[in-house]
Specification:
about 150 residues
């Protein structure tokens, strides 16, 4: 993923606040997304374990759509990439290619979900960021190797 892609895009969250009529409503929507994120990741893990292409596709598509709605752009990109690489012909359970896909992808997904959680918590601690943007306002919640930074 591009390091310039935000973990949580504030312009998307601000647009959500306008669509839902208030920043509080947008934060409530984010609250529900965040609360359900561990379950969604677990569902994807289970779908891969079951080696069911339909379950994998459904679980990934659900997270993919919701990630875009809340502005979790890196998570959206990761699930989008997975949707283009996971087709109806999943490798046989226990095969080396399937194990490699599982472990590499699922570790990346779990790490990105953690970053979304941190970005969400940063936004939750400063909801004033959802006020209409002004020149010089940050446009994304992003985390760097140093632990977190706004840009």
């Amino acid at each position: 993923m591009s390091s310039m892609m935000p973990v949580l895009d504030l312009s998307t969250v601000c647009a959500l606040a306008v669509d839902l009529t208030s920043p509080e409503e947008a934060l409530g929507f984010l609250d529900r997304f965040q609360a359900g994120l561990p379950h969604r990741v677990h569902t994807i893990h289970g779908a891969f374990a079951a080696r069911d292409p339909g379950q994998v596709t459904a679980a990934l598509t659900s997270l993919h759509r919701h990630a875009l709605t809340v502005g979790a752009l890196q998570l959206h990109a990761i699930t989008g990439h997975a949707l283009t690489t996971v087709g109806p012909d999943l490798p046989r359970a226990g095969s080396a290619p399937m194990i490699a896909i599982d472990h590499r992808y699922l570790r990346t997904l779990a790490a990105e979900a953690t970053l979304v959680t941190y970005a969400y918590l940063a936004l939750r601690s400063n909801p004033a960021l959802l006020t209409p943007p002004r020149t010089g306002m940050p446009s994304a919640v992003s985390l760097s190797e140093s632990g977190g930074a706004w840009r």
